Amino acid sequence: MLDRPTTVTGPQLDERALAASLSGFHLIGGRFVAAKSGKTFAVVNPATGEEIGRAAEGDAADVAEAVEVADAAQKSWAKIAARKRGQLVGQCAALLREHVEELARLIALETGKALRTESRVEANTIADIFEFYGGLGGELKGESVPFAPNVLSVTVREPLGVVGAIIPWNVPMLLMALKVAPALVAGNTVVVKSAEEAPLTVLRVCELLNRILPPGCYNMLSGFGPECGAPLVEHPKVRKVTFTGSAEVGRIVSKAAAQKLIPVTLELGGKSPMLVFADCDFEKTVAGALTSMRFTRQGQSCTAASRIYVERPIFDRFVTAMAERVDAMVMGDPLDEKTDIGTIISTEQFAKVQRYIDTGLGTAGATGRACAAMPSDPALKKGLFIRPYIFTGLPDDSPLVQDEIFGPVTCIFPFDDVEAVLAAANGTEFGLAASVWTNNLKVGLDLAHRIEAGLVQINQNLVVQANLSYGGVKSSGLGKEASLESMLEHFMHKKTIMVNYG
Ligand code: NAI
Ligand code: MG
Known about the structure:
This protein is an alpha/beta fold. The chain has helices spanning 15-21, 60-77, 82-98, 100-111, 115-134, 172-185, 200-209, 225-234, 247-260, 282-292, 315-327, 347-361, 399-402, 418-425, 441-450, 484-490; strands spanning 26-28, 31-33, 40-44, 51-56, 144-148, 151-159, 162-166, 189-193, 218-221, 238-244, 264-267, 273-276, 307-311, 367-370, 389-392, 409-415, 430-431, 433-437, 455-458, 473-474, 477-478, 492-500. A hairpin with a 2-residue loop joins strand 5 and strand 6. The structure holds 1,4-dihydronicotinamide adenine dinucleotide (NAI) and magnesium ion. 1,4-dihydronicotinamide adenine dinucleotide (NAI) is lined by residues 166-170, 193, 195-196, 224-226, 229-230, 233, 244-246, 249, 252-253, 267-269, 302, 349, 404, 406.
């Protein structure tokens, strides 16, 4: 057991009490510890504006301790047989499943994501991710290489050492799981730096899994980017960095990793196009547009279909049907089962999204339809709620069309010509995901090959799943996550061993 003062050992369904009890700690070497500076910062419920807890404010001194501990632990973790490491990671999945409801409530409180539509889904998915990787311990294989008579030449895969993982706030448990589970199975140990907006739920995940994993394998720091994230990337004993967040910070992280000549994986968001042809299954596609745009996550998704191109014969009908559907969604208390749409994460993001909406509304020729009613509950008066917006009539070079807004704002355009819509789809700096909706597979597959993106789906648009190789091209990032290949290629290196027996 860890030494955090608590009286509850099973799932803790009082999310406020849990948030309070997690306050003020990093988790290093299996123990809760305060920041060496003694500093903490506020964690705020975005639905009410109230402080729900505090997070330890880490800096280079905390990073140094966590990395040393992780480095020492890695030596013995790597000696555990690979399948046994996998079994332990699989046991983590089972424990996470027991705590799904607890984690879902806590993340809803901390991030404003609705319990039914988002938070519970995320909590279940992380268990899936750990379960998936837990089964892959036996797959860390190398090759034998024909070289010369009387020479046996083989490659073996080895872990990299200590992995530094930096995560954002939008799906923090999931994005952490995509890094931690494969890193551990591969024989690395991990130091995670959580996002300043969402440090508590991921800390709870780390606490739970430290009941199973040997101390020091999975460590968690909270703190700000330049003060805590940067020293983690720069620490000489961190041998791999994996980052999810903005392209801007991704470039900084990549530069620092390049100075150390260490590998880096970057997942940096997108501006994902959705292409809708007149021959699509109309109802399925309208429903698909709602899920593709991740309206239930307030659009705070790197794969959000924030540009929707609809073939002209069905354009008006599509916009109307989509607006009606979004209008029927319920915005409200994230912890209420009736709620479809919760809040934006922070006042900073709120202001950013609002600026884009104002720009759109002020653009000549553009129309912005605001959908779904604001919540009426006075307790949510200070909540960071933004009505979903559907824009039409925007020019291609509008910032709403080019930038990742990370809010409930999508732009819809009519199109007449496949080549023109393909050029538009490829016309941003991003290349993460895309979807094509048509009953003509020839058209769909041709576009799937020609769209610049790491993931293209036809007639569906799922979020990240275990076993689905995931990651972008262009400014959307480097490297893949969520698959066997991503573990082998990004968390291990291959050593060649040759034996001359002649
Ligand atoms: P961010 O990129 O600033 O933060 C992501 C993580 O990086 C956080 O843990 C942060 O503390 C850390 N970080 C910041 N500066 C750092 C540095 N110099 N060195 C090391 N780590 C550092 O993202 P932010 O400010 O939360 O959101 C801004 C925009 O980024 C969003 O509006 C959205 O467009 C995009 N974004 C994309 C995400 C994705 O899933 N790809 C997730 C979150 C944000
Ligand atoms: Mg930032």
